[in-house]
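worker-03 picked up job from queue 'complexes'. Input manifest follows; two sequence lines, order preserved.
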Amino acid sequence: MTSGVDPALLYPDERAVATPVLRARRRLSLTRRHEARLAYALLLPVLLVILGLVAYPFVSAVYLSLQNKPVGARGHFVGLANYVELFRDEVFFQTVRNTIVYTTVGVSLKFVLGLTMALILDQKRRFNNVFRMLLFIPWAVPVVIAALNWRWIFDDLSGFLNNFLITVGLTRDIISWLADPRLAMGCVIAVVVWQGTPFYTMTFLAGLQAIPHELYEAAEIDGASVVRQFVHITVPRLRTIFLTTVMLSTIWTATNLQFVLILTRGGPANRTEIFPHLAYVTALGARRLGMGAAVSLAFFPLLVILIILLTRRMLSQTDD
Amino acid sequence: MPRTTSGTRRLFRWIGNGLLLVMLVWTLVPFYWMIATSLKADREIYGFEATLVPHHPTLAAYVRLFQQTPFLKYVRNSTIIAVSTTAVSLVFGCLGAYALARLRFRGRRLIARGLVFTYLVPPSLLFIPLFAMMSALSLADTHQGLILAYLGFTVPFCTWLLMGYFRSVPLELEEAALVDGCTRLGALIRVVLPMSLPALAVVAFFSFTQAWNEFLYANVFVNSVEVRTITTGLTMFIIEDVFFWGPMMGAAFLSALPPLVVYLIFQRWVVKGLTLGAVKG
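worker-03 finished. Artifact:
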């Protein structure tokens, strides 16, 4: 690749070096067309992945949703019949409500806890590094493992929670955490929050540490209280991070079916049924691929708004 | 005034310490329970004699895990799939990111936008058509099929992150290499990549953990023990045998270790990567 060392480069004289550099620049601008050709060649694998593994499946999801295709057989075109059936189904509307509750409560709690933890870890303290590392562990562990672990904690007869509450004397009855219609959703959300809070703590802490200390010192001299400093310095400085984190997390929370699949399977009586799980059960449990695609697409309009907003944010933040 | 401020500061410090303790307990108790369960004999796990602390710790659950379950096979499959996904995403990502960062051509912005968009489209929207696709191509229930499916989310992420990093590598060094007679590809390999090692590490970390932790595709596309990965293999323990919590918690603990270890190694760089570089700090 390298054709020996250019003797001009060995001399410290600037003019001797500058000429080949200029020549190279000119050469580069002359080869604009070659440049484009090379660019497309280098991007080919990435483009194939985007088109083949995301764009094409997405389009074929739309097409599937207009068919009555079962698993492993041909489907027939049925127009909007799947959607009509869906909008007449009571379970569908329950799922809409559940998904909204599950996502908003989960995201809000993660936000509050994450911000609290970030503020606490931003205080000066010995061993803060160790605490931070420990608090981030739930995030580094696979979601399935977190969910299984919690299912075992919630176990009626042998789980940690009931055993602990009985040992301490807080209750004498066995509580069916995941089977009780009043408790199930709360339990699922608790696990979602347990697993998802570290992500918020991490991003918020990074944001907090980027705020110059002088701002707080100046406010201190002016006699601003800790609360006022928080409202007038911390919150405005973190606004961008708040927005990005919440949008990313909303997409991830709303579309993750692992918690529900492992903890409750949508039960009891559809109390914890959310969109991704309903699509999963319809496509693979009932083996109706077309209907399953319709379920996940019915949820897509809400998501797509978020995705487009977030895409725009990401681009504007890297282009400056 | 300053005195009251330092007074409130001290108060906040103590509230902080208290909350920190509560959060540490809430975060770590599940892990305690996981490890404690894996060290108990069945007698201490179930029923009226169930204990909060293992009174007679034993490794019996681990012995059962290794001798009577396909756990090691699952580990092998997860490793093959996660490592291959990482390798392919790194190569694809580097090539594409270099083009986006350094070369001028039509459609550059459109492709950059497409990358973010693709990364954000959730797998729970794509698994049904992908499943139909994999079945049609007879890639369902193979390592290759699963690796291919994972590339759908690792490649856009890697390319995007590396693109941002490549842009920060000084142009002058590369020009010097080009003057020296290096080709574009040579400049990428000899100049840009060596200077981007931290970014490559982060990207490798994310591809590996995402592939290792993935559940939905692995659950839908794979049926046989020969291909099944750890995450789906673990859930099989409940369905096949209800009374299996000891070995299962052992398996859960062991399979949480690889991503945890990589995380501990890379934690300094992880935050930036997490939010696609949108959080600067």
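worker-03 released lock.
Residues 32-64 of chain A form the longest helix (33 residues).
DSSP finds 14 helices and no strands in chain A.
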